[in-house]
Amino acid sequence: MKKIILYILILSTFSFDSFKEDSFDVGEYIKFRIHYGIVNAGYATLEVKDATINNKKVYHAVGKGYTTGMSRFFFKVEDLYESYFDKETGEPYRYVRKINEGGYTKNQEGFFNPKENRILVKDYKHKSEKTIVLTENVQDILSSFYYLRNHPNIDKLQPGEAITIDMFFDEEITKFKLKYIGRQDITTKFGTVSTMVFKPLVQTGRVFKEKESLTLWITADDNKVPVRIKAELAVGSLKADIDEFKGLKSPLKVKK
Fold first, then answer.
1. Alpha helices of the chain — where are they, by DSSP H?
2. Contact 162, 179 (CB under 8 A)
3. For residues 249 and 196, is the Cβ–Cβ distance under 8 A?
4. To 10 degrees, the CA torsion angle through 38, 42, 46, 49?
5. Is residue 200 a contact partner of residue 213, using CB atoms and an 8 Å limit?
6. Residue 122: CB partners within 8 Å, gap ≥ 6?
7. Residues contacting 92, CB < 8 A, separation 6+
8. Which residues on neighbouring strands pair with residue 107, listed in sequence order?
9. Are 65 and 76 in contact (CB under 8 A)?
10. Helix or strand or coil: residue 74?
11. Whole-angstrom Cα distance, residue 24 to residue 55?
12. Which of 218, 214, 189, 243 is nearest to 4 (CA)?
């Protein structure tokens, strides 16, 4: 469950050199309802706020994931992810990761130094810190969502093509890859929506059946908002659907 909510927080956003016109703005709020089979397992939310770092206005993204009801009784999840990133380039300045997943906890904060391609990671749980060398144009786990969402070529992708970025997570740099599948109309709580379908490539093993076990649907309008995520698990399947939204930069396009 913990890795599923993590992926939903990542995917619940989508140049490399700079942002195109932003597909989001301060005040955007999205909530997803997570189902495990017929069970309502929990919720994940994403919100964009304003913040100031070094006297500069930046985006402050906040992602939360939590289990509810009987799911909370069997496996309690309370996750908080925060990211502060540049409004023009999408370059991350700072991230926060504070999680409690069935008793497994982390309390970390990372401070990016893009001029030196380094990051200072402070671990408050273990009262330690370390400096790690980064690649160029690296993103943290939450800023990746908004960075990819503004990719300048996202509307030009052909089926089978992919977008790849370097993502910093768990004190490592990993390749995060999204393969474009095509377009599809899907029915949501708010009506029928035209979407772009992606397959994020994930590691196989204990949680996922195969590399393409995850499927993501984002709106094919200017917002590029995720509206559905499905995961085929080693045991069962999980789905997250958009349940609430407000503050979108552009009106959500819904077909009659």
1. 2-11, 69-74, 143-149
2. yes
3. no
4. 150
5. no
6. 108, 109, 110, 111, 128, 129
7. 83, 84, 85, 86, 112, 138, 139, 140, 143
8. 98
9. no
10. helix
11. 22
12. 214
Task: Provide the residue-wise pLDDT of the chain in tens; the chain has 256 residues.
Answer: 545 555 555 554 443 334 456 889 999 999 999 988 777 889 999 999 999 999 999 999 999 999 887 777 677 889 999 999 999 889 999 999 999 988 889 999 999 998 899 999 999 999 999 999 999 889 998 998 898 888 887 888 999 999 888 989 888 888 888 899 999 999 999 999 999 999 887 544 433 344 567 899 999 999 999 999 988 766 667 889 999 999 999 999 998 6
Q: Which of 21, 41, 25 is nearest to 33 (CA)?
A: 41
Of residues 113, 62, 120, 116, the one with CA closest to residue 92? 113
Residue at 97: amino acid letter: R
Parallel, antiparallel or unpaired: strands 29-36 and 39-53: antiparallel
Say what the pTM is: 0.86
From 95, 97, 96, 138, select the one nearest 116 (Cα to Cα). Answer: 138
Q: Contact at 8 Å (CB) between 148 and 100?
A: no
Lookup result for tokens 């959500």: 252
